[in-house]
Amino acid sequence: MTLPLFLDYSGIAVAAVSGALAAGRRQLDLVGVVVVATVTAIGGGTLRDLLLERHVFWIANPDMLLVILGATVATMLWTRYAPPPAKALLVADGLALGFFAVAGARIAEGAGQTGIVVIVMAMITAVAGGIVRDVLCTQVPLVMRSGSLYATAAIAGGSAWVLLREWGMAPEPAAAISTVTAVTLRFIAIIWDVRLPTYRVNHPEGP
Prior knowledge:
Helix 1 crosses helix 4, helix 1 (3-25) runs parallel beside helix 6 (115-136) and helix 5 (88-110) runs antiparallel to helix 8 (171-192). This protein is mainly α. It has one domain (3-192). The longest helix has 23 residues, at 3-25. Helix content is 73%, strand content 0%. The protein is globular. The protein has helices at residues 3-25, 30-51, 57-60, 63-81, 88-110, 115-136, 151-166, 171-192. The relative contact order is 0.15. The N and C termini lie far apart (65 Å).
């Protein structure tokens, strides 16, 4: 298995884990858990492929749906017998973000897109599934939480890919370095609560 394909499978697996954990916290039924896990895992990649006018990745490779189902069932079994750590969802989501950012960048580059579009596609692939997950679970999406290094981490991963490829690095080491860049930045935010400055417009009180 090539590194890019390994990252793709790893991304959808850990994204499914994050979706299953989020659904479990909202006490959804078994079908609801599978639905949330699935849209979390495929949401960003589906939107990316539609925007790039590509054959949607999970339709082209239905085995990915089996990976999602397997990861979801494994998560439900795990949490049935052992309570997950408090930040398990954030950790799984952070890993998925890194994997998906690089997948989005790699696919956009392969479609002949320019650097800025590659970075945007990296971000979309990384965050869109999580947005759908949080909306379905009636949570404020992580990407919208004040100062969170969420989309920022995806942009960093996509930017690293673009720079490394422009410098002539081969795809596999570029993918590894870019993934580590995105995941590390996201984990820094999770562990040490690092945040971006927030923007605020002061205005007088209305009548």
